[in-house]
User: Fold this.
Amino acid sequence: MNRQTFQFTVPATLRLSAMVRNIAEEIFCMAGFSKSWCSRLKLVVDELFMNAVKYGSTEMKSKVEIEIFYDDTDAGFMISDDGTGTQPMSVKELRATIAANADHNQITSTHGRGLALIANLWTDGFTIDQGPQGGIRVSFTKKIVTTNPPPPPLTELAVGMHVPAQPPAAEEKPKGPAVTVRLQALSDQYNIEELFTPVFERAQSMPEGSALTLDLSEVDYINSTFVGHLAQVYNVLSKKHGTVTLAKANKEVRDVLDIVGLGRVMTLTA
Amino acid sequence: MVSTYSLSTEIIRTSFGLIHAGGEIDQTGLPDLENAVKPLLGNPALKILVLDCAALTFINSKVVGYLVYLHTTLAKSGRKLILAGLNETLTDILSLVGLITILPHYETWEQAVENSKS
Assistant:
């Protein structure tokens, strides 16, 4: 197959977000991506367009240039702005911002172009350079994937997870063995799986009524992925009438646990 | 083409609010979602808010961020946000940020209502 390229220029307005992302989705589907991957790339495109308009353009005055391509094996997307936004960034600054956000899993923190997580996880290559209009050009490539990604690993366990209004009563002491596991500090989002694998294995092998204590004294901060894994460990043990205690969490970690509600289902100790 | 979406609110009972969301919601539709939620949040009798996503086909990071805010705000006052009818795309997005393990969710809003009675 020859390379197919689609180029278009649109006014910089967020009212066109839906049009841009849906055109991109259609082209990715034509390229052969599975439905799930088309949906994922659609979200990536939406983030890139939003950032180009919001941070790199003057609403309705600027134009945003877009190019989408695919061939037999790869597809890609490129977007460039004119750099006239209210919060202009240099290529170097944007790279630094994205690298910083990537360490903290902040998809929801879009301020300052926080698209690091999806860009890192869902594309094969992500580049930022100087665009032809004087602003920033952001592009990604992705090997064409015809199969759907595996379902999210935590979904099934989380369905119907009920959060009791009160913490477990003090007299409800577990009848099984008590085990303490010390968690290591997070260095980046990619070591969370590695960090939790032995914890899952331990939780799964523990008998009915066991008490698992996770020592968080070495954990400086936690992110949403970490919280998700904690919830999974809780689900494993609660099904066996066991308990999970989080020990020695610092204030920042405790605040996050309280905010997301885990402080009400797991016991926190000093 | 602009984003097309639909929103409607139901009060199942005084303590239980339900919002049906449909279509694609991004930053252009988010203010309407916020406006739909606002009176429910301001009702002190409300204990549970269910967001029925059965007809919702797309949300972007702005909406994910709002769901985090909504969950946090409700949880701080001992209330709860429940999602219902998440499709594969929405589940994928929410899983990416770990929200799927934090927010209770059910296949249908009717199940969410039934399981939240106690």
Helices of chain A lie at 17-31, 35-56, 91-102, 116-122, 155-158, 192-205, 224-238, 251-260. The radius of gyration of chain A is 23 Å. Confidence is low (pLDDT under 50) at residues 105-114, 152-171 of chain A.
